[in-house]
Amino acid sequence: MTSEAISDFRSLFLNETPLMDVRAPVEFAQGAFPQAHNRPLMVDQEREAVGTRYKEEGQDAAIQLGHELVQGDIKAERVAAWRAFFEQYPEGVFYCFRGGLRSRVTQQWLQEAGIDRPFVAGGYKAMRRFLLDQLHDRVSEGQVQILAGPTGSGKTDVIHAWPRSLDLEGLANHRGSAFGHHDEAQPAQIDFENAWSIAWLKQVEQGPGPVLVEDESRLIGRISVLPEFLALAKQADSIVLQASVEARVERIRRDYFEQRYQRYQKTDPSLAAEQLRDFVAHALTRIRKRLGGERYQTLMQTLEEGIAALTSRNHWGHFDTLIERLLVDYYDPMYQYQFEQKQNRVLFTGTETEILEWLASR
């Protein structure tokens, strides 16, 4: 591959081509791509100074300042970082924001160092526009089936087991409920949308047919789901996952509480119970108004009893009580109300095994 600019965005994303992003770190943090690595031409302060000079004195003065700020050892460090990137990813390409001056300067310095790699035509802005257009095109086509089911029924397990599916909660790094946040931070909104578009693009590349997506609300944690997709989901055919209350309680206890408690214990066993209590209490406080004062106080009391039983004899029974009350009194009524709006579009209802067999038969 020569140093000519690349405009085949589809291939870049489908092939997961390593991307070197030469924008400043602040730009990268605001939005990037899953396979991108930030190796800036200018750091944040340098970019800000150059931008100010451009506004006040024009392009030539800004370019001159840029070369003054990034020279000598600083320039050598930047070029060394680029060299290391392309030694690790010989097939990689690079981009700036619009595929303009920063890409040209980067390419020139790389060539001076004996490295001949192409940049992306139109840069980040063009790739982002491509992914947004792809995402809206997929929504317009309407090729989705919605996986519904009450909280704790195991919808994520079905999504992971069925190859033609999209895991929006996985992409958002959040399970979707008040108890759903992970230890790791959620991605930026733009990063989520980029990853979603790429994942859907890969599904389309496999051939025609609907993609299975879990029924989601407007927000997954702090990540917003596209309103156009939510409108599509309301009208799409649904598949409903069934599971007993007992099975749901067990799954939620394991996935939301026991696993978190185990992670806390690995960090500091003496604080694990207190950290678990704080996590649950914070989640309950977030939905306090919708729970109502009396129900909230009852659940908080059950939590305190549960922490005491957990620390004294490693007993999880009070957590099962808390979870069942949340399901029966809070989550299930909300699910039932939402389900009634779409029950005339249900294609199939069954357990995880039955749903996977039904999907395979089609």
What does this entry show, briefly?
By secondary structure, this protein is α/β, with parallel strands linked by helices.
Write up this protein:
- The protein is α/β, with parallel strands linked by helices.
- The chain folds into two domains: 9-128, Rhodanese-like domain (Oxidized Rhodanese, domain 1); 142-362, Rossmann fold, CATH 3.40.50.
- Helices cover 61% and strands 9% of the residues.
- Helix 3 (44-57) packs antiparallel against helix 4 (59-69), helix 7 (123-141) crosses helix 10 and helix 15 (293-313) packs antiparallel against helix 16.
- The protein starts with 8 loop residues before the first helix and ends with a helix.
- It comes from Reinekea blandensis MED297.
- Pfam families: AAA_SelU.
Output the CATH topology of the largest domain.
Rossmann fold
Please provide the ordered H/E string of secondary-structure elements. HEHEHHHEHHEHEHHEEEHEHHHHHEH
Query: What do the pLDDT scores average to?
Result: 92
**Total number of strands:** 10
CATH class of the largest domain: Alpha Beta
Give the DSSP E fraction (strand runs of 2 or more residues).
Answer: 5-15%
Number of helices: 17
CATH architecture of the largest domain: 3-Layer(aba) Sandwich
Radius of gyration, taken over Cα atoms and rounded to an integer in Å: 25 Å
Secondary-structure blueprint:
Elements: H1 9-14, E1 19-21, H2 25-30, E2 36-38, H3 44-57, H4 59-69, H5 72-88, E3 93-95, H6 101-112, H7 123-141, E4 144-148, H8 155-161, E5 165-166, H9 168-172, H10 189-205, E6 211-214, E7 219-220, E8 223-224, H11 227-235, E9 238-241, H12 245-267, H13 272-286, H14 288-291, H15 293-313, H16 317-340, E10 346-350, H17 352-361
Parallel strand pairs: 1-2, 1-3, 4-6, 4-9, 5-6, 9-10
Antiparallel strand pairs: 7-8
Helix pairs in contact: 3-4, 7-10, 12-13, 12-16, 13-15, 15-16
Family: Belongs to the SelU family.
Enzyme class: transferase
EC number: 2.9.1.3
